[in-house]
Amino acid sequence: MMKIEKVTGVLNVILLSFFIIWCTGWLFTGAWYCNPNAEDLSLTSLPRDIGIIPSSMDVMSHYDGRYFTNILHGLNPLAFNWLQGYKLMPVFGVIFLVVSFYFFANTLFVAKSKWMLLLYAGLFATVHFATAPSLPHDLYWMVSAFVYLYPAAFTFLWLGSYIRYIHVRPNEKSIGWFIATVIFLFACIGLNEMFLVSNFILLLVLAVIAVFASDRNVLWKTLPVLLIGFACITFFVASPGISDRAATQHDPNAGVLNVGGIVHAVKDYEFTFGYLLVNGLCVFSSLIILLSFDSVSFRYKIIEEASKPWILGLITLSLFGVSVLMALAFYIPMQINVGYPARVFDSTNIFLQLVFFVTVPLLAFHYKSYDLFKSILPYKNYVIFVLLWWMIAGIFFSNNNIARIKREYTSGKLQKFDQTMKTRFAAINSARQSGLCWQAATVDSIIVPNSTIFYSPELGSNRNPVYWNLAYEIFFKVDEVKREGDTARKVQ
Amino acid sequence: MMSIIRKPLFAHYVITACLLAVIGFCGFKLHQHAKYDKQLVRAIQSLQDGVTAGYDADFKGHIEKQFSPLVPEEANWINAFKKDSAGYPQNIIAYSFRTMPEFGLVLEKMTIHEDTVYCLLRLRDREEFDVTAKFIQKGDVFLLDDLRNIAAFYKRLTCYNLYLIDTAKTQAVK
């Protein structure tokens, strides 16, 4: 009996590894075929041509306050004219989320094996990408991933660094973690308006903890982090671009509160959370995590104290609250009527996933002495075995992003898209190298524009809207890029 | 309190002070930049209004007057603006309208409607420009909705050795 259980335990590790490798394998396959869209080109050509600081100032004067996103627009393969390097960005995105969550988890818990912790982080990331409402926004569309994926990873990094920084003794030796905290916090705040909410709340919570901590050293160590954090938020919010953008997107008929937007947000939130519950990946992961560990040991005392049931309950509710407020941070200012903004929930899902991956399993640990648990524990490896098979079957056959990438690959949609883009870039390069005074390229349109790895904006017919044609023309430094069949000329 | 800050956390607070100074400085420069940017947008709008009003001896002065508040403090930014157009001299193009050669297309009319500059051009000597007839027909109306478009238009003309001439000189040629 013991031997079978041991074998099942080993099988479970193999199955879990298979699940993660299968998912990341398909995510990387998608990366192999992904290509930049017109907005990637438009946003990276400006910093490439005039430099990161002038271009950031230009965008922040007119459009937003995302200072770090604007910096990243100048620090990526496209900004160095490396088109093929674009395919590495989704790979980096996956690894970035795994590494950042691993670091965060490793800060919270002391794991018996680093490999188990890595599997835990891998499961977190793959479930996130498999259930993301819009995978292109979350991963494959580079400039969108800067806004919707990277801030989540930076949140894990700055929180993890902060917890380590606070616990380093003597204080002189904490400078490394302090610098890491400040850099990651600075980056995190400057990426997306929605994460201003989560960062603001986190900083407030840290302030309260620091003020009431019995050790005054915590307050003196936290104070510089708070000062920098709130300064970054002020810098973001006070950017002239924020008010300019709000003015252009303000619906004159909408009230200040935008009640319609709030109702819309609640409905969309319900839909998204419902999907997370129904698809099973999060719920099953939660059960697997709970059953996999007999005990949990925390790296720091403060985390152990925070694992009391009532505090965990409060954190769980706060995670729901933060994700709701983040969604509202999109809906309330965006007073124009939009459909389901899937990309918004790519970000909020991270916080909901923390409920499934951290707080609920920790809460359930407190009730392991209950009869129901006691009756399951002897068979836990078998239960995990069944759950893992269920998850693998789900990833194969249910409606999720991994299954969609696989379907699009087997139907040849991904390859066709990649080929169209390769032909397009070749035609543009050919025009550029033609030596003609007026360098014009005619390119094919993408037959099925939106997929798991690609999302518009794309060239419109007859230069409508002209902006995306200009994006290509400026990025590739040619005079005219038009679609096959266009009758309109660049100067019409 | 001070001893805590002075000794073990001194470096932390120095870094914090430096960062806060940098953030403050960046915020100040950003708002200054946005202010100049708005001035430039106004200048461009005035420029288009000037184009609509037609070419005359005062046009040069009109442009220079509009741009003068931006010089020299914003000279660097104007240079950046030039580079932004991927080699197209966006702001210089406006000046190009007053340095037109004496042959080529006749600009018969430029009007502005809903932020779009409409240019009505006429071929002075159709036979001389057979090549260009493929893309420019007599009586074509060119819609130039922004300076970048004007720059592209200007380049397209120069690629085919065509130049705009101003209406006063056209009369002289005729």
Structural class of chain A: mainly alpha
Number of helices of chain A: 23
Based on CA atoms alone, the radius of gyration of chain A comes out at 24 Å
Give the rounded overall mean pLDDT of chain A. Answer: 88
Give the beta-strand count of chain B. Answer: 4
Alpha carbon gap, first and last residue of chain B = 88 Å
Q: Specify the structural class of chain B.
A: alpha+beta
Brief summary of the model shown:
In chain A, α2 (38-50) packs across α23 (466-476). Helix content of chain A is 70%, strand content 2%. Chain A is mostly helical.
Main attributes of the structure:
heterodimer; A: 492 residues; two-stranded parallel ribbon; 23 helices; B: 174 residues; four-stranded mixed sheet; disordered C terminus
What does this structure look like?
The complex is a heterodimer of chains A (492) and B (174). With 492 residues, chain A is an all-alpha fold. In chain A, 70% of the residues lie in helices and 2% in strands. Chain A contains 23 helices and 2 strands. Chain A has a two-stranded parallel ribbon with strand order 1-2. In chain A, strand 1, helix 23 and strand 2 form a beta-alpha-beta unit. In chain A, helix 1 (2-33) packs across helix 6, helix 6 packs antiparallel against helix 15 (281-292) and helix 11 runs antiparallel to helix 12 (216-237). Chain A is globular. The model of chain A has no long low-confidence stretch (mean pLDDT 88). Chain B is an alpha+beta fold. Chain B is 55% helix and 13% strand. Chain B has 7 helices and 4 strands, in the order αααααβββαβα. Chain B has helices at 2-6, 10-53, 58-67, 75-84, 90-96, 147-159, 167-173, and strands spanning 105-113, 116-123, 141-144, 164-165. In chain B, helix 2 (10-53) runs antiparallel to helix 3 (58-67). The longest helix of chain B is centred in the N-terminal third of the chain and has 44 residues, at 10-53. The radius of gyration of chain B is 24 Å and the shape is elongated. Chain B starts with a helix and ends with a helix. Classes of the chains: A mainly alpha (492), B alpha+beta (174). At the A-B interface, helix 2, helix 3, helix 10, helix 12 and helix 23 of A face helix 2, helix 4, strand 3 and helix 6 of B.
